[in-house]
Amino acid sequence: MAAVSGVLPQVPEPRAAVFRTFSKPRPAHARRQAAATKRKCQASSEAPPAKRRSKASFLPAKKTATKETRRTLKGKAQKTFSPKKSSAGASDGNQERKLGIKTSSLFKNNPEVPELPRPVVKQVQEKVFTSDAFQALDLHPHLISTINTVLKMSSMTSVQKQSIPVLLEGRDALVRSQTGSGKTLAYCIPVVQSLQAMQSKIQRGDGPYALILVPTRELALQSFDTVQKLLKPFTWIVPGVLMGGEKRKSEKARLRKGINILISTPGRLVDHIKSTKNIHFHQIRWLILDEADRILDLGFEKDLTVILNAVNAECQERQNVLLSATLTEGVARLADISLHDPVSISVLDESHDLSSPESEAFLEASPPQATDELDGFAIPAGLEQHVVVVPSKLRLVCLAAFILQKCKFERDQKVIVFFSSCELVEFHYTLFLQTLLSDSGALAPEHLPSTSTPLKFLRLHSALEQEERTAVFQDFMHSRTGILFCTDIAARGLDLPQVTWIVQYNAPSSPAEYIHRIGRTARIGCHGSSLLVLAPSEAEYVNSLASHKINVSEMKMEDILSVLTKDDCFKGRRGGGQKSRTAGPQEIRERATVLQTVFEDYVHSSEETVSRAKKALQSFIRAYATYPRELKHIFHIRLLHLGHMAKSFGLRDAPKNLCASAMKKKKANLKRPDLQRKKTQSKQRLAEILRSEYASGMETGSAKVRKQNTRSGPSQPRGTARNPGPASAEGTD
Ligand SMILES: Nc1ncnc2c1ncn2[C@@H]1O[C@H](COP(=O)(O)OP(=O)(O)OP(=O)(O)O)[C@@H](O)[C@H]1O
């Protein structure tokens, strides 16, 4: 509590405690000892170190942390905000004052950046392509020529080579292969092949023969597009898509006319099952669950049960296929529900010869099972994963510097940045538009970066109107460059070409989500990179990833920030202006401070912008509180330093009472007898909020972010309606 409100005990957590591996249970006495240590240090490893200083002189700490923390949080928190007024603040360092920079101490009293653990793990690898052409399969010649000429594909991927024959035999299957390995065609090709070959030719009015469920609307559109292309020569088979956010009336009309291959998000389908007389399943031959583990997440079995019951009531005989890059226990549970004598298809590492007889034996012999997560998920070979540890105060400038480095000083970079809630996406999107792009914004025109490559910011999250959501998706899809800020609605299945970097600004809530997020790059044998941003107190997360055979290499924050020396718009008033080769840590610090000042000036330019920043910070804290239990020892709000976090939202002071009301409520609840009921209700409420992607999209009263111009002003409404949740949860937003 104290830590959350910003006043922290100053004892840094011993490094041994920070880097313990959580995968091995510790003996009781060790646990007791660790608990005692933890109580002592309770606040945080994010808390400024009392006496230690980082070996690197990059983050000097001249005053003791205690003094700094109390002064900053008590003294400054009392101040009332006055718009436009410079609040250089009592805590500004001498250096900054000399430079005339209106910002508080960015480089003081930060926690020591710990040395990252370097666990050595062998990542699971899969071979993407085979040398076999589609001609090797027993497919209709027109289908083969469509694959070759319309989709412009010649050889099969490993997962296609393994799955298509099995599915054409009529077997149920559980298919797991790495992200971007071609799973969509692995099921679409057999579906189209089997439906076009039916003896009595399919009539539109027959209704659905194949039902494909996917977790998000964008993925529904993408799969629909693939199916549509494959159906080119078979015009009598009609595909259709149902998804939240579209007009139900027109969907009803299309259902009435007839859809033979129906692609839908679960919530919308349930809505139609309950309210539309025109939906029938008596012809169903295929039931496909793409991203099956996601569909099972967050207790959405309910929707699935409604769908399965509706389908089972009209037809028993069908093929069921579940697919995902991350096969978890949940999927296996689902497999138990819906698969009949299924084949488990898993693309093995490169040492496994796909053409060998043993490989075939593997296919036949393996019953579906939950892959023990400790076996690890396969990661594309061309994907380089990085992690950077950044003290909370420096997060914002570090993100901005990284974006500038990639998108301003390098060519053809397409970057996706993942945040944990809609509010966080909106806040950062607006902030970067207004400061890094705007000519009326905080950077004076002569100080605007001399962009050779103009920066293009886009954002995608569930609180946007569907129309805008689709437009953004299409825009980013067809852009050669750009920066997409998004929640996890973009984490699953989306095939956005030529994405070069994935940034996880907020850590994901599970290794599976980590895999899916980074899987938006390095698809189908291409190269790509990812960067995970962690706070010093979160460094142990690297061990957690390693326990799932995920290897990350460290990138230094200093190297990211050094890009600021390449552009004179970040020069301090003293006018150092040294170029990158000669620029030292001091120059970099000054420039980072200038950039932070730009952000703070914008945020403090009106009460409205301050209020938005506070709301975003609140949203961050709420999302942070929802990490699963097994990650709580790494991601716990107690470990956060609110004053430092506030800085990463451009706030000069830690907002008062940000968490207090929430905490008070919690305490009061503890005394109440109906606590259990309340808890369940709020869990249900959270689940409702998080499941909105599955919802029909017909809800009333859920405010949406209005359509706006890309270079919108600060006064435009921002999406705060759907609420924030953990990163993974918003994925289903
Ligand atoms: N045989 C092939 N040859 C060339 N490209 C292919 C082939 N099969 C699929 N692709 C392309 O590879 C990309 C990734 O395919 P797809 O989206 O189906 O991957 P996925 O395995 O479903 O990924 P995710 O797990 O992220 O959902 C798409 O652009 C698709 O068009």
Automatic annotation (TrEMBL):
UniProt EC number: 3.6.4.13
Q: Which GO terms describe its molecular function?
A: ATP binding; hydrolase activity; RNA binding; RNA helicase activity
Which reactions does this protein catalyse? ATP + H2O = ADP + phosphate + H(+)
All residue ranges annotated as the Helicase ATP-binding domain in the record: 164-345
Q: Which UniProt keywords apply?
A: ATP-binding, Helicase, Hydrolase, Nucleotide-binding, RNA-binding
Per the record, what about its domains? The Q motif is unique to and characteristic of the DEAD box family of RNA helicases and controls ATP binding and hydrolysis.
Role according to the record: RNA helicase.
Q: What is this protein called?
A: ATP-dependent RNA helicase
Provide the species name. Odocoileus virginianus (White-tailed deer)
Organism phylogeny: Eukaryota, Metazoa, Chordata, Craniata, Vertebrata
> What is the gene called?
DDX31
